[in-house]
Amino acid sequence: MGKPKVFITREIPEHLLKPYRQDLEISSWNEALVPVPRERLLQEVEKSDGLLTMLSDAVDRPLVTHAKQLKIVANLAVGYDNIDIAACTEKGIHVTNTPDVLTDTTADLAMALVLTTARRVVEAAEFIKKGEWKEWGPFLLAGTDVHHKTIGIVGMGRIGTAVAKRAKGFEMNILYHNRSRNVQAETELGAKYVSFETLLQEADFVIDLLPLTEETRQIFNEKAFRMMKNEAIFVNVGRGKSVDEKALYQAVKTGEIAGCGLDVFAEEPIGKDHPLLELPQVVCLPHIGSASTETRSAMVKLALENLHAVLVRGQKPLTPVNELGH
Q: From its phi and psi, is residue 314 left (phi > 0), alpha (psi between -120 and 50) or beta?
């Protein structure tokens, strides 16, 4: 028998792959920023024992059905709404993700968006680049303070807790809403559990860290934005489809809320003509929540370790999403 075959759907730096080539036959799509074509992925899944996929790759039932010897799909993300978990489980295919290793990096970016939107950092940088800074004025590009304000975290998992720790450093009042109580955050950080509606009404900064489910799809809609303070800022580093972007656009444009910072969108990538980009109170980033060199390298290594555990060592994966008989 030859080595187990693994296909990676993006270009990955060779130094990360090299330690695993002794035990795995690794091939990959040779583009870092261009998704693997569906036809190519269908071809590869027929002969692969393992896939290392991105959140933008649709591992749906037709693709899973096409697989002949696939044993594991290692998703390079915490989320896995791009994968048909039921189809994989039915076929005995492990699905894994990369939790924990990106928690702090993503929380850093969430706070960066809070600060950037509150203090109008992007607007101010563009102001200088356009040569518009002619004189100093007492309220020139005046934003709003972050310290001592109320932050409302919707989705108080690992990343939400890490955001709360950072908010504590700014002496913020911490509210949260979650499917279940986070006693640790309440005890250690003074976070207060409230209803979704109360959080929207009281928070100066509303942070969306929700996973995508049928219950969370477009939970941030016209009604939700109407409940928020006019001076509130909305930040999303969770899932784009949890937001009704048309309602968000109207809320910012009409002054229903003061602004927003977004790292995720309903459909990605967005083009330069996306309506939200025309609003100066909006900061948009290209889904870079976990994009530090250290964290992305750790995510790749964890995905490869999951592949190695299942395909080479015959063990359970380190970070399973689904449970299979073993």
A: left
Amino acid at position 252, single letter: V
Map tokens 């656009």 to a residue. Answer: 249
Active site residue 308: no
Active site residue 287: yes
Q: Is residue 316 part of a domain?
A: no
Domain presence at residue 322: no
Token digits of residue 309: 């555990």
Residue 153 in domain: yes
Q: Is the pLDDT of residue 90 over 90?
A: yes
Confidence of residue 326 (pLDDT cuts 50, 70, 90): low
Long-range contacts of 31-35 (CB under 8 A, 24+ apart): 35/9, 35/10
- Strand 72-75: give its sheet, edge to edge: 25-28, 5-8, 50-53, 72-75, 94-96
**Residues of the domain holding 298:** 5-101+293-311
- The answer on 113 and 204 residing in a single domain is yes
Catalytic residue among 126, 171, 197, 268: 268
Active-site option among 120, 177, 239, 296: 239
> Are residues 138 and 40 both part of a single domain?
no
Query: In b/e form, how buried is each residue of 229-265, taking b as 16+ CB within 10 angstroms?
Result: beebbbbbbbbbbbbbbebbbebbeeebbbbbbbbbb
If asked whether residues 35 and 149 sit together in one domain, one would say: no
**Catalytic residue among 94, 287, 296, 308, which?**
287
At position 57, the amino acid (one-letter code) is D
CA distance 312 to 306: 10
**Per-residue pLDDT tens for 109-139?**
999 999 999 999 999 999 999 999 999 999 9
181 given a catalytic annotation:
no
Domain count, the chain: 2
